[in-house]
## 1
Amino acid sequence: MPAADKTKSCQYKAGFGKAVITPPEGISLAGYFEPRPNTGKYDDLYVRAFVVTDGETTAGILMFDLCLMPRVLVLRVREAVRKAGLAFADNLICAAIHTHTGPDVGGLFRTDKDYPDYIESIVQKAGAAAKQAAADLVPAECYLGGVEHNPFAYVRRYWMKDGRVVTNPGKCNPEVVKPEGEVDRQVNVLAVKSGGKTRGLLVNLSNHTDTIGGDKVSADWPGAMERTVQKELGDVPVLTLVAPQGDINHFDIGSDVSQTNYEEACRIGEGYGKIVLGVMPKLKPIKPGKLSVASCEFEFARRDIPQEKIDEAKALLATEAGESGAMTSEDLAKGAGGVMRIFAKSLLKFEELKKDGPRTTEVQSLRFGHEFAIHALPGEPFTGIGKAIREQAKFGKVFIASLANDHCGYTCMPECYQRGGYEILPTAYGGCREDFAETLIKVSLELLNG
């Protein structure tokens, strides 16, 4: 029987919406250690909405071309969706693509800067995009597939000859012994079709979204991937669900070729776009099943910082300032004084915020029967977390979206905290306890398998 006949009775309706959220010139870009007021754009940023219903439950995703999603922003967006007259606000996953050339909406390293008018515009446009998607609902079929082929991702944490693990040790560094972990090679696609025509795509893959640098706005490789797909399929929205990538990026340290520029973002995005287009003819229809949403809000404690580390931070900040400028994690690996001072300030801010007690975060699952699920994790989990959840979940396929519903920094595997690398360093947003990975896995499996 043809695939179209198998899905004729599909109970889903789906819709899409989007709005431009490109910041005005002058608003600082996120993701590095110092403010970077933007001087223009390479391409526009969007909030994209996907809404799906089975007639009883309505849910969806709001995907933002931002670096991160602070919890306070997520709550404001959901409130805007409610005010737009939509009752399913709490069933929306709010996630970011993690572009490092998007606006600073949460002071990742700087906690004293805000852009209230611009942030309010993001909130309102997100509500409008969700309303547009809800108004766009039409009978739809969902098709699923993927491939074990992610040629643009590399482990970014390496064992060094001195026994440490270093993040981004630099290209062609002779002190590198081997990568600490493995790359998640899966590139998965969900196509939403109506009447045989593709209306939108959800793409789930693992890679960091930091290939450009500089001071111009861009959606990085996810934007280039969407444009590549649209050349073939028309003006269909492509929502990039970034899989756990806290220990992954695009740097091939065995090559001395520069990989920090807009051209590199386009190269990677076009490459992913071609992979997605190659998967499309092989997608299989999902059997219609009850749509359900499960969410768990829970408290987690911040890490305990030894007093000697606090004293070291205070002593460093008491010395005369060193380097400044647009410093990166590679500068941190080299021990650049300017970056170390920023982390010292962040550690002291972290210790101050710790007095507020445990933080609340959220894990959320959107389940399509028992065949497919989209699972949202806060912050930047390491790939091992996503792998553990996928392997133990009772589903044929699970898309795991990181950077969703909250930002709580990196969640490392427990063994990594004694090895080194800058992911273990506490920041105002980050600094989860060493057992937080185990908590995320446990809570996730309870939601998915419950």
Note: Residues 116-135 form the longest helix (20 residues).
## 2
Amino acid sequence: MNFNQIRFFLAVAETLNFTSAAEACAVSQPALSKAIRNLEESLGAALLTRNTQHVELTEFGRTMRIHFERIEENRRRALDAAKLATKAATEPLNVGVMCTIGPRRFSEFLEKLHKTNPHIEVTLHDVTPPVIPHLLLSGGLDCVFCAREAKHDQRFEAIDLFNEHMVVAFADGHRFADMESVALAEIAKEPYLDRLHCEFRDEFLDFTKGSGLELDVVLRSERDDWVLELLRRGLGVSVIPANSIILNDVQHRPICDLTSHRSLELVTTRNEDMAPALEAFRDAAKVYDWR
């Protein structure tokens, strides 16, 4: 006796039709009939009476149907419990990513993490710098990829990842493509796409004004993906972190009279009792070759 034989019998008991029961169980009618005959042989009595007109349950069949329904119900409960237990084995991890950080350097890291720690279920959250401390301290986030602060809050600890330079980005075919580097004065001659969430924005605008330059801003956006698409279409140029450029037909060059760069890091709260998933994520970030 096996579970399939019981399931097939219950389907026939419900429909009193071998063809309909076979369709419901997604098997051929001969396979279903053979399974039920084998079940009857193992029990030593007929469960069904069959003729060319119809199918009926025997008295023995009606009695066994009650027991088999209980077995089937317990089987389904066991499967549901197994699914829940498997799902519970996964460890959720909420990872913040500062909204101006592009995915280029991080995608391979996350791919390798999944291969070595498939039980960690990562959810990425787009965050702005002002809300990061609250989200970490409240437990809304387990860790955050962000740019280094000038002075660290002692409630947090950070792992240095890599440095990233700011570059000027533009569409294929733009005149900047013929230059090894681009001066701010040349950027000021072009329509400019202003990235509102850029942590260097105020510093950059002050620097250009102090240099006697005024940017020709044609659009402002909080979203870098929109800026990249508009760059690709040739609407203007923009100063942007090098690793945020993820479109093949958007080029970039260094800015010869601006040396702005940022250091990216992984930040967590200082906690001796760190969850295993977070500890594994942190350790993977420590040993990963971010170059």
Note: The radius of gyration is 32 Å.
